[in-house]
Amino acid sequence: MVSTDETTEPAVEEPESRESAGDGTGGTGESRPARRRSVAAVLLVLALVAAGAGLFVRAQQLRDTPATDNLALTDTEATTRVAGDVSSALGKVFSYGPQDTAGTKESAKQLLGGKALQQYAALFGQVEKQSRDQKLTLTTHVVRAGVTRLSGTGAHLLVFLDQVYERQGKDPTTAAAQLSVTAELRNGHWQIVDIASR
Question: Which of the chain's termini has less CB crowding within 10 Å, N or C?
Answer without folding.
Answer: N
